[in-house]
Amino acid sequence: MNGDTAAVQGGRRISAHAVCAAIRDDIISGTYPPGARLAEELLARRYGVSRVPVREALRTLESEGFVTTRRHAGACVAQPSEKEAADLLDIRALLEPLGAARAAQRRTEAHVKVLRGLVRLGQERARHGRLGELRALGDWFHETLAQASGSPSMTGLLVQLRRKTAWVYAVDPARVQAGPGAAGAVDLSVRAVESWAEHGAIVDAVARGDADRARALAAAHTERSLSEYRVRKESPVRTSKHSVNTVGGRN
Question: What is the dihedral of CA 193, 26, 17, 132, to 10 degrees?
Fold first, then answer.
């Protein structure tokens, strides 16, 4: 897809990149569950654009593995197998610690400054129970940590892995809950505080240039985070909150 391609709606130029990001976000969130049909006309109406950027966005999402084209059905959300889902966790468990180790060896002071700032924000939001703001901060943190590895290839792989994991897996409600209750469940607020403390420890190791400790901490953090996931199953299509014509796409 050419990211410069744009649709003109209501006097505004809406980039195909923004449309692609909006559809991808809705696939990842589960608005479009595995197997859901992605009709160009309905997508264009939902996001407030023409069918041209939608068509290009679907091509890009197919190349990324989020969309598949079925005979007689057109574009649909892909349905990874249990084996593919398990492979994602294995790959991420190997690659994220490597990325943290590389970051400890190659980070710049600018990377450390941004990472420490994100940790402060994340810890403050977690302490005050502002959990809805943590996903975006977490994505920003992990993308910055990946960039600190000094490898564009690794950064691209890590960002794609996190997107794929968030899409294929949902948090298991039997393991994670919003407050005290069932035995064996994890309080979501408590886990958020713990998670951002782990982020802080990783940044401390990266700032010191301690690659071995950064790797070990990242491995432990990844293992704890992924233990609460379950494979996302087919479910009814939820209403999308996206309208790229009014809120724009995420870069």
Answer: -20
CB atoms within 10 A of CB 96: 24
What are the distances in angstroms from CA 36 to CA 39, 102, 237?
A: 9, 39, 7
* Residues 33, 204: Cα–Cα separation, whole Å: 38
- Render pLDDT for 81-113 as a digit per residue (tens, 0 to 9): 888 888 888 899 999 999 999 999 999 999 999
The beta strand positions in the chain, using DSSP E, are 6-9, 12-15, 67-70, 74-77, 169-171, 176-177, 186-187, 229-231
Give the sign of the dihedral formed by CA 73, CA 74, CA 76, CA 78: positive
Would you report the helix, strand and coil content of the chain in percent, each value rounded to 5?
A: 60, 10, 30
Kindly tell me the burial class for residue 12, based on how many C-beta atoms sit within 10 Å of its own C-beta (0-12, 13-18, 19 or more): middle
239 contacts: CB under 8 Å, gap ≥ 6: 31
pLDDT at 186: 54
Whole-model pTM over 0.70: yes
User: What is the SS3 assignment for 9?
Assistant: strand
Look up residue 155 and give its two tokens: 């950064």
Burial 109-141 (b: 16+ CB within 10 A, else e): eebbebbeebbebbbebbeeeeeeebeebbebb
| CA dihedral for 208, 138, 19, 59, sign (positive or negative) | positive
Long-range contact set of residues 134-142: C-beta below 8 Å, sequence gap at least 24: 134/192, 134/196, 138/195, 141/115, 141/199, 142/96
Compute how many other C-beta atoms are within 10 angstroms of the C-beta atom of residue 211. Answer: 19
* Rounded CA separation 205/217 (Å): 9
